[in-house]
Write a structure and sequence with these properties.
The complex is a heterodimer.
Chain A: H1 3-31, H2 38-56, H3 60-81, H4 91-113, E1 129-131, E2 136-138, H5 139-161, H6 163-173, H7 175-180, H8 185-206, H9 208-211, H10 217-220, H11 222-232, H12 237-257, H13 262-276
Antiparallel strand pairs in A: 1-2
Chain B: H1 3-14, H2 23-34, H3 39-61, H4 70-87, H5 92-114, H6 120-139, H7 141-144, H8 170-192, H9 194-204, H10 206-211, H11 216-242, H12 252-265, H13 272-290, H14 295-309, H15 313-328
Helix pairs in contact in B: 3-8, 3-11, 3-12, 3-13, 4-5, 4-6, 4-11, 5-11, 8-9, 8-11, 9-11, 12-13, 12-15, 13-14
Classes of the chains: A mainly alpha, B mainly alpha.
Chain lengths: 287, 329
Amino acid sequence: MDLIGILLGGCAAGMVLFIVSVGLSVTMGLMGFVNLAHGGFAMLGGYAIVLSMRHWGLGFIAALALGFVVVAALSVVLERTLYARLYRASELDQVLFTIGLVFVMTAAVTLAFGPETRRVILPAWLDGQMDLGFIRYRTYSVAVIVAGTALVLALWLGFERTRYGARIRAAVDNRRMAQSLGVDVGRLFTVTFALGSGLAAIGGGLGAEILGLDPQYPLRYLAYFLIVVAVGGLGRVTGVFVAALLIGVLDFVLKIYFPKGGTLFIYALTLALLLWRPQGLFGRRAA
Amino acid sequence: MSLGQAAVQRLAGRHRLRWWEALPWLAAIAAFFAFPNHLAFGTQLLVTILFALSLDLVLGYAGIITLGHAAFFGAGAYTVGMLAQHAGWTEPLSGLVAAAAVAGAIGLASGYVLLRTHGLALLMLTLCTMALLEEAANMASAFTGGFDGMPGLRFAPLLGAFAFDPLYFRSQYVYALVVLLACFVLVRMLVHSSFGQSLTGIRENTLRMHAVGAPVRARLVTAYTISAALAGVAGALFTQTTAFVNLSVLGLDRAAGVLIVLILGGYGRLYGAFVGAIVYLLLEHLLAQAYPTAWQLGIGLVLIVVALYARNGILGIADAMRSRGGRAG
């Protein structure tokens, strides 16, 4: 495979990483809540998407929309009933709770659908290869990159150019100040949490072809999602995007050229980067 | 006042020794005779307690939140494993010392670099350190056995007299219990010393500890190093008593597992590690037997309930009940 092909593959993986992690970055930045169960929402979304296509004959786009809605709704219920009780708890109680939630999700999915890996049935228009002019490449990867780019643009516009985005940015930078200016941070958080979880669900479905999909998904990729968030900086959409692309491409390239030690390099790089800038590439120094 | 009385008062005062602290150890000895067929599980339990106890020193007392404590467990486990496999160094007690030295050195080096950060960055840095070691162990398969690890290790008899018992784990159990007791006494003394008090101070208010002139970073690095060495001892015990070592000793699963054990039992208190390990391992053991495919469901639910309703773990409930009873009476 030549260089452009490898880069495209890495970009597709990076896009998936971005779509899944961006919600985690914003919710962690808003509330400082250590949500280790974020990958679980991606997994649930992935299952909803894959299974609704297989059993109900839903189209790919319709299934993605369904996954988004179902997981966003579920996350609001969980947020209001359970997460909200732990905002003032210590980080360790939050860790215990979210790990427990991951266990429950993993076990529930195993019980309901079995432990084996699930595959997406791609619609005909996404299957096969396409001609990009300079290279023939997998249509699906190209579609993921296009969809990811569109999503980044939409999120960036929403984040930087709308009132709602301004409220989130204000609350991430200084929650108490934002509150005293009349921003309802609790409500903001609920909405953002639902959006972030819904996006993770889309990421889980879109990425099932790339990252795979099975009950161990949330724990297997936890480190990757956390690395993306930490490298990008808390509550920074652009930062998460750059970090996700960087790690997606690096991981892809290294797995091809150094199949044995590739991951070692990613961890080492993250280590060096966080020692140099503990707040991440784009994060502000601790507020 | 006789010398004996003075000693007792000193223990009860300065070290706050209570009579009931003998109970866990008596129970452990009783278990040796009561459950002769379950000593393998008992040994595993003792090793987990020691590992969680080492974590308690940094997490519960010094307030350092780490996701990578298995790095030191694994370092200790691989140290004795590789010494036995490649160097013929099979004497168990000196193996423990070597494991403590290696794990402590890694703790010192990484702690010196990492402990200037905190929060998410520290969490990720500890995780990455562990992942680096795991990848390194995977790559250096000529020395570590790679993914398959090193099965069927042989260790010399304890003190040259008590051979490891592969069937009933009798000598392993006693060995682990004695090592745990020794390490526990050490941790207990540390926690109640002025060093331990300053750690608690740093956990509660770092800024103020800086202000009163405490050498905050040196204290944290020291605590991290001691904790790493103890975790290394726990890892070495794991390898010696089970006679194998593989990559599982270095993984996120193990690091998360020990974190769960400690938070479940109650961190920042000496016996949280004991309660958490017993509850977690028993639950895992029984659920895995009853529901091999879905045992995680039960554990997950317990973790959620404890996090929601029993802040500070199971021992936290006991405290809350006692203080409520005290107020009523």
